[in-house]
Automatic annotation (TrEMBL):
One of its GO terms (biological process) is nuclear-transcribed mRNA poly(A) tail shortening. It comes from Thanatephorus cucumeris (strain AG1-IB / isolate 7/3/14) (Lettuce bottom rot fungus). The keyword Nuclease applies. Positively regulated by the regulatory subunit PAN3. Its cofactor is a divalent metal cation. This is PAN2-PAN3 deadenylation complex catalytic subunit PAN2. Residues 152-165 form the CRIB domain. One of its GO terms (molecular function) is metal ion binding. HAMAP family: PAN2. Residues 1103-1115 have a biased composition (Polar residues). CDD domains: PAN2_exo. Catalytic subunit of the poly(A)-nuclease (PAN) deadenylation complex, one of two cytoplasmic mRNA deadenylases involved in mRNA turnover. PAN specifically shortens poly(A) tails of RNA and the activity is stimulated by poly(A)-binding protein PAB1. PAN deadenylation is followed by rapid degradation of the shortened mRNA tails by the CCR4-NOT complex. Deadenylated mRNAs are then degraded by two alternative mechanisms, namely exosome-mediated 3'-5' exonucleolytic degradation, or deadenlyation-dependent mRNA decaping and subsequent 5'-3' exonucleolytic degradation by XRN1. Pfam families: PAN2_N, RNase_T, UCH_1. The gene is PAN2.
Amino acid sequence: MDQSQSQHKSTYYTLPSFHLAHSVPVTALCFDPVSDVLWTGSAAGLVSGYFGNVTATGYASGLTKGVTFPVRGETGVLKILTGEKDIKALGSGGLGSWTKGGAGRWQFIPQEHLSTFTHHPTIPNTFVVAAQSPGSGFHIVNAISGASLRRVSSPFNVSHLAHVGTLLVSGTVDGMLRTHDFRTRGREDAASESSCIAHTGGIQALEAAGNYIFTAGWGTRQSHPHAEHFVKVFDMRTLRPLSPVPFADLPSFIKVHPKKPTTLVIASSQGFVNVIDVVQPGGVPDFVQAQTSSYLSSIAISPEGDYVALGDAEGFVHLLSSVPENPSEPVPLNGFEGEPVVWAHKQDLPDIHWTDETPLSTIGLPYYKAPLLSSQLSLTVPHGIQAHPPPAKIPQKVLDTMRTVDFVGYAQLPKDLVGRRNVAPTTHVESGRFRSTRTTRKASDVDTVTENLGDTSISEIPKPYRRVEIMYSKFGVEDFDFGYYNKTNYSGLETHIVNSYTNALLQALHHVHSVRRVAQSHITTPCQTEHCLLCEFGFLTRMLEDAKGVNCQASNFCKTIPKIQQAGALGVVDYQAEGLKRDYGAIIQVFNRFFLEEMSARSDVPDGNPWLTKIDETEVTTNGASKSTVTQLMGIDAQSIVVCSACGATTEKDTLSHVVDLTFLRKPQLNVTFSSLLSASILRETTHRSVCQSCKQPATFHTQRIVPGTALPPVLAVNTAILTDDAGNIWRTKGQNFLTPEVTVTCGRDGNEAVDYELRSMVVEVKNETHAPHLVTLAKIPEDGWYLFNDFVVQSVTESEALSFVGAWKTPCVLYFERKDNESTLDFSTLPMKMDPAILCNIDNISWRMNKSKLVHEPLTVEELPTPGTLVAIDAEFVSLQKEENEMRSDGTKKVIRPSQLCLARVSVLREDGKAFIDDYIHTSDTIVDYLTEFSGIKPGDLDPYSSEHALVPLKTAYKKLRLLIDLGCIFIGHGLSKDFRIINIAVPKEQVIDTVDIYFLKERQRRIGLRFLSWYLLRQTIQIDTHNSIEDARAALLLYNLYVQLETEGQFEDTLEEIYREGRALNWKTPGDPTSPKPAKAQVASMGPSISGTFTPPYGSPSASVLSGHTSFPPQWRRK
């Protein structure tokens, strides 16, 4: 570039692009005039608002997704216009108005399809809407109510509308340009118009400003349309053509600068943007190239002209800015500090002071303009419509024996119909399979949890693949019989938590051994990120390994997703809104890319990453890897070579990606194989038109990716990107012969290198026209074959079934491959796989007001670190994040719709001698709806880092301590530990759990005894008087176990247990101090001995010192098998 040209800087420069939730064209864009918001419309018919995060650099970066709502129509969003308080959006099916928060105001829905709309040139608060049907005319619509005021005759197939001054400007598909004057006197259904031929092949873009009309379109050459390389200018008053404005590329979009009426921003479909002054079109060239790999589909310019937004066909929005790169004050999208972004804010209802004397007439009711259904009940039913069920048909047996006297028929009722006539049929509704009903459930019971026999719409979907849901009994979700649906050694994941759609992807990654190793290694590092998805995934994989077929839940992982800002912007947070149908096949592919990028960032160690490939020992000791472990495992290093077809100039650029998106040809080939399709997607070749920086001429650029065989990762992640029916038909027509268990990828500069991969797991979407979509996993487990993971339903399948995609109900979404040479190239010996036990020797705390004098625990010393078989007592307390939702039936029974959601608030772990070494209060950023103080002892402020006087830690810190104790081989003693471990979301091997609720239990009695009654009766101590205390409860469970060992040794345990049940029944299981006890609680408590925290003598003699100290080995027969 010469010196003279380097002095001329473009008006706009590029900003980071962002991607919509779906890879569909961005068909409409509009900047909000009063808020820092960019509104987008997609071909999927969704309007979304993205608000900018204005930084000190002076531009909006990292736009965050806000509200989203759909428009009517089959062609997507056609146009968006925003005002100060609302937003108008047009689809082919109608025009609508919404508040900035997404609440609908009105809908204008005509019978014909619509094409575009604009403001009325003379009447305020009015729109002119163009229809596509011949003879339909313009609709004049009130912008406040959405009512159609009248129709005005218009030309056929209007594609563009604009208003300037008192005239309406329209462009049609036949290339005619017209001006309409609605001030015509005489007829209200007509407007005077002037017309001229602007482009013989059709108009592509139209804009008006001042006295000028600007158009771009196609001409006709040899009876064929061709794009014209200039923008035509017309005088609005006479429609006389003026000198056209030349453009270096093919103009597709025109926007007038809002502050410079003679300046145009012209863009081509290939992303070339030129800023031209129509008064001086031959001035200094001012252009910029948007980095798009497809073609542009929409454009918008901000109210102050500081930003330009370009939408392309792959769902990307590219931003251009003219704001100086280091301004004194940040500049929002709308150009000034306007109104704050408000999403669907609902007005607070007025407070009503309600008493028994308050008349009902003071309670206001909404005002309705349209008649309500209740006012129509007196109307007669139209002819031909039956207002009630038809009468039951009289059986033929009765009609054959009927005799008629006068006009009345008489017949004897046959014996086989006695008691069955005129009885309404009832259907037996199953409540699911529960452990509490195993003995009463019949073998012929219908399994309605996984299959509804009356629903014929899902009959084509095999039973193991159908959507499954957890049913709830009066005993909660713990009573659900998960074991019935999984009889394998591989654990499934539960579905009753938010974002559980990620279960399929987590299972797929879990069964890729190398990914699992890297994730489990990360949890041993001192990760400082509180909300780390890689940590949660590592904890989850350890839990799935330890569970060995017992169902698990990814609650900690799923709760972490919405706490990451980028997740909300990408639309991967599933709030399970009622009535919202989500395309989980597309969402899981977006989440796959987001999750891998997040894991790569979190696994990057600043001081050097461990090497995963086998290299020289000297290099390992001197230098760490520059790439994170996840990038070493799944990153694809590619080199993009861009060649100009005009001058041959070549540009090289290094790229790094973690996911390959399959690229399908527009015209599918019949002989295509999956190996060739995958290879072509990795070595993707694209073309685009732009202005070459070397020859300064518009030219076609060819881009090709070069990926050598050594750059292909050990684990290859593939998004199938099946967005069209043609792409899906490739999988279905090939059937079982398309996706193979082994794939050969050709790569290299000349395509002469080959790398063999083996399919390890995949995520599959299951749906049909009426069945709601859901995701399942198909994974190949070494030496055990293929398995289907449908949430908590797990069963083995054949390889041919797993790789078959014949039916339209089964669509692959995400595939994971492993290189066949991984065993010889990967080395995990450098990965840390053991936690630092020093975390048990420190007091962790994030509270600003921790009172050390109130701490009741003392950390372990190095000499006290546990060894395999060490006994520890544990208890936990919880708070409620969501209350239980119930449904009362007409027969008085209660059905649980959604169980309560509890969160860990405190966990205490004791030594064998009863002294606590862990007593952590857990900080949570979730909203607590009930502290459950009566049962947890947690009070408001105990979990607040600014007011808590306790040792407050993040959940991940407490989880790591428990995980370390499990890995060290500790044996946990407690009362009701199964529920505690379930809420904590950790799996402890059965051989490492001693639960006193199971020790002091007789199966034939069915009742399990509470800790309070056992402590009172056996230990002569009263606990849980006012509230619960986790240290007190854990110490009671430890002493009960020691007493059990003593009684078992003396041969008195069985008699003692019978005595406990006998006395408990006599006392109705009430203890002194119980609020429901008929005697005064305080008097009884005073008559009892000291608290369990002090010394005491059990009623059956003092255990020996060796038993109390915990050094005696306990009998093995009591352990859980």
